[in-house]
Amino acid sequence: MAITLTSLADLATHGFDDIIDVRAPAEYAEDHLPEAISLPVLDDAERARVGTIYKQVSPFTARKIGAALVAKNASLHLQGPLADKQGGWRPLVYCWRGGQRSGSFATILSQVGWRVETLAGGYKAWRGLVVREVYDTPVRAKVVVLDGNTGSAKTEVLNLLPSFGVQVIDLEGLARHRGSLFGAVGPQPSQKAFEAALALALGGLDPARPVVVEAESSKIGDCRVPPALWKAMVAAPRVAIAAPREARAAYLARAYADLTADAGRLAATVGLLAPLHTAAVIEAWLELAAAGEHAALADSLMERHYDPRYGKHRARMAVPVAEVAGDDLSAEALPGLAAAVAEAVRATSGPVGQIG
């Protein structure tokens, strides 16, 4: 049987033991349903081969060859990843459009005796729900932006807010990027995968409470913030952490230890700023990096690069701002800072005159 999803939340209510993506590995790598496992019935080369035969020879020949390949790969899955599944196992199987690939594999699984179901419309239907959520639906909750100059511990504070009853969306966490030139932390998700994770977060919001997101540009690394959320962020009231540069420099030296531990990567990243600063400034930064003076490097980068740019950006904004002092950004002090931010966020639910 095929199930039809009318919302992103529907998937969890069905309680499948496993969700199986039978598309080719490249399709799965770009995006897939949450927690789906990849058991392709055609690998990338096989899919391309069958498609070519379909166009250049005949649909019948393509289906015959495709069926043989699906049977071969299904056999490998049954003897491999599925070998220990018991009789009560209940999987959901999907492909691109809920057609022949998922139908063929589901038929084989059902003949074994498993209670298998397919997804009507396949991945394409799921993607349609994601697009509807992130592009066509206004953000369900009032957005509040957590602001502050570079090094204000915004991300750590953001992730402490739920313990104080504040709902948040960690955009940098979803994008797997810290949002600046120095912010790469490894491979980022595809745009589609980023949007899917964001759609689930947006769909789960409580409209009765504000949601806090960190101040970002419209791109976080290579991931683009969808227009509906970006417009809500631009118009949103802000709670800004006001921290002295010395405290921020010390925090950055601690928070970016993964980057500073790799001298070559740090120097290469500093070099990317060459088009924006004089050779003498770049050379001074490279000397600090080479000497391991990471707090001093962070301080100079903020003084000469980040703080002036943040200031110009904020000068163009006309939204309510509440400042929260963050004189101490040590790990021990951050829960107290988060409590103060949470109180400021709750104040945004009152009259505008309470902010600023």
SSE layout:
Elements: E1 2-3, H1 10-14, E2 18-21, H2 25-30, E3 37-38, H3 44-56, H4 59-79, E4 91-94, H5 100-112, E5 117-119, H6 122-136, E6 143-148, H7 154-160, E7 167-169, H8 171-175, H9 191-203, E8 211-214, E9 219-220, E10 223-224, H10 227-235, E11 238-242, H11 245-255, H12 257-260, H13 263-271, H14 279-290, H15 294-315, E12 321-325, H16 334-347
Parallel strand pairs: 1-5, 2-3, 2-4, 4-5, 6-8, 6-11, 7-8, 11-12
Antiparallel strand pairs: 9-10
Helix pairs in contact: 3-4, 4-5, 6-9, 7-16, 11-15, 13-14
Structure notes:
The protein has 356 residues and is of the alpha/beta class. The protein contains 16 helices and twelve strands. A five-stranded parallel beta sheet has the order 1-5-4-2-3. Helix 2 links the parallel strand 2 (18-21) and strand 3. Helix 7 packs across helix 16. The longest helix is centred in the C-terminal third of the chain and has 22 residues, at 294-315. The radius of gyration is 25 Å and the shape is elongated.
- The order of strands across the largest sheet is 1-5-4-2-3
Structural class comes to alpha/beta
What is the straight-line distance between the termini?
57 Å
Number of strands: 12
Instruction: Give the ordered list of helices and strands.
Output: EHEHEHHEHEHEHEHHEEEHEHHHHHEH
Oligomer: single chain
Mean pLDDT: 93
Unreliable stretches covering 5 or more consecutive residues: 351-356
* Total of DSSP H or I helical runs spanning 4+ residues: 16
DSSP strand (E) fraction?
A: 5-15%
Helicity range of the residues? Answer: 40-55%
Compute the CA-based radius of gyration.
Answer: 25 Å
Globally, the shape reads elongated
Largest sheet: 5 strands, parallel
